[in-house]
Every structure is written in C-alpha cells, then in structure tokens.
Amino acid sequence: DFGVPQNRQRFMILGVKKEKIGNFQVELPQRLDGLNKKFTTKDAIYDLEQVTPTHDVEENSLIYTQKKQLTPLQKYYRSNNDTGMIFNHINTQSRGMSLQRFKAIKEVGGKNFHSLSNELKDNTYSDSARTQNTIYLRLNYDEPSPTVVNVRKSMWNHPKNAVALSIREAARLQSFKDDFVFKGTKDQQYQQVGNAVPPLLARGVAETMLGLFGDEPEFPLIDELS
Fold first, then answer.
1. Dist. CA 140–CA 143, nearest whole Å
2. Domain map (residue ranges) of the chain
3. Residue 210 three-state SS
C-alpha cells in the first residue's frame, strides 16, 4: 500500500498530544494516495537477473549491466546512484544439497521445501512435515514478496535462477534504494535487511504525521514513484 513490493503485516501505534493537532483524527493511512498498483517482486529485482552476484563481502561492488527497461520502482531504486555500480549484490555460494534443492524446486516449478522429494529433504529438520512454508522459499515474479526476514537463514531462492537471493535483492524487496550500502559480515548484512522497517513504509507514515501537523513533505513520495 506504500510502494513496498512485499506483503508485510505489522502492528503500529501513533500517539500525539491533543493540543498539538486540534480536532484532527489520528489514523494510519490506508493506502498511498495516488498509487494505483501494488508492486511485485519482478518490479523490484528483475533488472538484476543477469547480474551474477558475488559471494565475497570484500567484493562489494559490481558493474550494473542491465539491458532491460526499468520499472518505475527500479528507477526509484537507482535514483541518486550515478556510480554505474550495484552494491551488496552478494549471496551465499550454494553447494551440495542446498544447490540440488534449489535446482529441484525450479525444475518442478515448486514453491518451497515441501516441493522437494523425500530423498532431498534428507532429514534436515526433525519433522519435515512441520517445516515452515518460508524455508527454501522460491519467490514468484508476479507477486509481492512475503515478509522479508533473514533470507539467508531461511534459504530463499531467486524466482528464475537456481541461486540464493542476494543481500541487494532482499534490500530491494524491503524498498531500500541502491545507494544505501550495508556493512559487516555477510550474515550481519542479511540480518540488517531482515530487521529493518521498510523505508517506503516509514516514509508513508512520516508523511501522514506531517499532515496531522498541517505540514507537507517537500518531495512527496508519490511524485517519486509516478
């Protein structure tokens, strides 16, 4: 509802002293006024499909070589980034059983760990039948992402390529612009993304709060996403 390409439900409370806003009713906005669509996973990360991620946090920048027409959301992500590079496009170098599972899920058009054969489940979890649907989740280009967590621990994989989702791709699903660079170890960077409040959601709330005080943003979010 605020431009974040993700289904993410969170409980939020806004409070303000009565004398500060008079008779205005304090409410969260239901939808970003003027946004006529919900962005999908494809809107967010499709342009990175042909940019092979690195596996080393020391190699934190790659040449951004995209030949696809950018979606409005991708243009927003690339704004203010005139370096010609993509940062934090780093993922886990999957080997062995993990790689076999990624390939198998892709081949059968599966969705997650439950799409695997019993042989590939390999007693990884004490009770495979009770494994959460978000484990080995394969994203769907045509839908918003589910709630982004530490996608490395949950072994999320790319909607088209049989590889782990990168830090930058997860950050895009959280609505971070490409010029926001994450630091730390690989797992720390994945965790930072998963723990974050989506910036576009935070901005939507902030713009609503400005309105309660009779003010307005200098650069409304809807103008950037149009």
1. 6
2. 18-225
3. helix
Amino acid at 4: V
CA distances from 97 to 104, 199, 220 (A): 10, 35, 47
**CATH code of the domain made up of 18-225:** 3.90.120.10
> Helices marked H in the chain — which ranges?
18-21, 41-45, 72-78, 96-107, 118-121, 167-173, 186-195, 199-212, 221-225
Residues 162-184 have pLDDT tens digits of 888 999 999 999 999 999 999 99
Write out pLDDT tens, residues 182-193.
999 999 999 999
pTM above 0.85, yes or no: yes
Contacts of 22 (CB under 8 A, 6+ apart): none
